[in-house]
Amino acid sequence: xxxxxxxxxxxxxxxxxxxxxxxxxxxxxxxxxxxxxxxxxxxxxxxxxxxxxxxxxxxxxxxxxxxxxxxxxxxxxxxxxxxxxxxxxxxxxxxxxxxxxxxxxxxxxxxxxxxxxxxxxxxxxxxxxxxxxxxxxxxxxxxxxxxxxxxxxxxxxxxxxxxxxxxxxxxxxxxxxxxxxxxxxxxxxxxxxxxxxxxxxxx
Length: 203
What we know:
Layout lengths: L10 E7 L14 E2 L2 E2 H10 L5 E6 L3 H5 L8 E4 L7 H10 L7 E6 L7 H13 L4 E6 L2 E2 L3 E4 L3 H5 L8 H6 L4 E5 L12 H7 L4
C-alpha cells in the first residue's frame, strides 16, 4: 500500500453516473431527493468523506448532468462508450485517477443513501486492514460500494461489457474484507419508478 509523505493513504473515489436509466425514463440522476438531486447527493457523500479525490464518470445526457456538478471539487470525465456497459465507465474513471492512489473506491450514482459515515467506515477498513478488496454487507447480502487495491488495476482494466467486477471478487475471496453495516442503503439503488417513490420516504 502506498503511503504518502504526510503518512496518509490516498483513495480515489470513482462515481459511475453514465448509464441510460432504461427502467426509469428521463434523467433519473437529476430527480429531486433530500433537498438536492440523486446525483449531487451521491457526490456530496463522497466529497465529505476521507476519499482523496472524487471522479464523476458521465455518459448518457452528460452535458445536462454536468450543469449540476461543481467541477471545482470533482474530476469530471465523459465516457463516450457508456452504451457498452459499466466496465467502460470504470475504465474511463481509472484513466484519470491519481497515480498515488492505493485504492479505487467504486461507487454507484443511483445509491444516494450510502452515507459519508458508511463510506468512511469502508475506507478506514481498507486502510487499517490487510485485504485488497473491501465491501459492505447488510443482512448477509454483499452490497456496494467496493474498494479495490490498485494491485487489481490490470484486472479491472480487462473487464468487458456490463458484468462489473464480481468475478474478480470471487476469484480473490481470500483477499476480501467484509464490513457489516446497519443500513440497507448498500443494497438499494434507484432503478425504477417504484424505487424512486420508495426513496422519498427514506429516513
